[in-house]
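Pipeline run #58 for the internal structure catalog. This entry was flagged by the ingest filter as a single-chain record with no existing model, so it goes straight to prediction. Upstream metadata was stripped on purpose; only the residue string is passed forward. Reviewer on rotation: M.T. Logging verbosity set to normal.
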Amino acid sequence: MKKNLLSAVACFAAAWLFASPAQAQEWADPTISYPGYGGEIYLTWPSNYKVEIIDDDAAGYVYQESTGTTFECLYYYWDLYASGNYMTFNIRKSNIIEGDTYVITLAASAYSITCDSVEIESRDLDYTWTYGASEPEPTEPEVVAYTSTYNDGTVKYVFEVGYPYINDGSYAILTRDGVEVDQIVLYDNENITIDWDLYAYVIEVAIPAEDIEANGNYVLTVPKDAYYAIDYDAAYNLIDVETVDLICEFTVGTDSLNVVAAGEVATDVYTVAGVCVLRNATKAQIQALPQGIYIINGKKIAIPK
């Protein structure tokens, strides 16, 4: 029995000594690419690698050789992002130029990396990359989509595609009957509010009262270079969205009441909520309505003070 026990111990020891050690996980350099939408440069590891940003204050950097500009990509603002086996550095689409060379850096302490679920040691990322003709053809960019409304001196642009940000030094242009009335400062100004919630992204512009004292047909335009917009693609990657001029047309004053001209058949008047406030109203009765927006002959009409 003693002999059998010694034999078993010897076999166990041999098995332990000669067993294949767990295969060490090794670092792999990522490939660098620009898919063509938004302004995100991708660093992509093999599919069995996973990367994650672990420092909430992490900042990556992209140096553009042609301009000598260094772009700071902050994790806090989603300009630095990691998911699955890739990491992105967002420097805006206009800064990515074919044939230009970029140096991409990130400290090892900012992220973690695993291979087949086994953590491996992070390295300082320091890669030089040239955006060349071999890159994939850019996809069609997303374009801002919105609706506009006017009510009592305030214009609202409600975004259906795009999260808007106002650029420094920007302004909106107000015209009356085709003639410029004012340039309304937008950036860091009481005239504008940006309201974000889960369902809508709204730029709200308050028009100075003195700008709309005269009757007429008005147009308020926020030029496309007055703001920029971002959104998320199907993979929830942050991308730039092509901007457009934001336009709202509205009418102020009794000129708008020509829809009920003298001698014309009287008409019903509704609030914008669809409540009838006057039936078979004459032009004089319509002009006497409290200030506001009404539906008359199927059109939104502004009644002044």
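catalog note: The helical segments are 2-18, 283-287.
catalog note: The first strand starts at residue 31 and ends at 33.
status: ready for reviewer M.T.
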